[in-house]
Specification:
GMP Synthetase, Chain A, domain 3, 2 domains, 3-stranded mixed sheet, 14% strand
């Protein structure tokens, strides 16, 4: 009987309930990405936030190559639309810095650029967004008026406008 009490106190690793599909897909994607050298799949998942929206449309990481038995000094291989490779070369220090922020240490040391001709730009779905009324715009500006950091203030204003513009009429 004592064993039965212990058994009921443990959480079951398998449950008959619903599971988040996103978690399952991330696990599968992580396995595939690890084969390509991406020990930290966040680089691929957050590529747009690392390099920016425009750059991510014609440049993407294909793999990471670490020196044997080391976790420092990796080379990140990028496929870049041919005409844009010079621009990526100039942005290399910034890309390295932002990528290493994801790792939390200087994991990536070099970037190898491969010029490709077949990168298709992502299709953008244009959403119907309504413009804010004068009162709503005034409310957004007044709401963040006391914020000292200009960068934070701009971000909060942008967020407020985005939320209110998607609000149903």
């Amino acid at each position: 009987m004592h064993q039965n009490l212990k058994q009921y106190g443990k959480r079951s690793t398998t449950s008959g309930g619903l599971k988040n599909v996103n978690l399952s897909l991330n696990k599968v994607a992580d396995k595939v990405l690890k084969k390509r050298g991406f020990i930290e799949s966040a680089v691929v998942y957050r590529w747009t936030s690392i390099v920016g929206k425009e750059l991510s449309e014609w440049c993407y990481p294909t793999r990471l190559s670490f020196p044997r038995n080391k976790t420092l000094g990796a080379t990140m291989f990028l496929d870049v639309l041919g005409a844009r490779s010079l621009e990526v070369q100039h942005l290399q220090p910034l890309i390295l810095e932002r990528t290493n922020l994801i790792f939390g240490y200087a994991a990536v040391k070099n970037i190898s650029i491969r010029q490709v001709h077949g990168i298709e730009p992502k299709k953008r779905i244009k959403k119907n967004v309504r413009s804010l009324t004068f009162e709503e715009e005034k409310w957004v500006v007044e709401s963040v008026e006391g914020t000292k950091s200009q960068e934070l203030k701009n971000a909060l204003e942008t967020l407020g406008r985005a939320i209110l513009s998607k609000k149903l009429i």
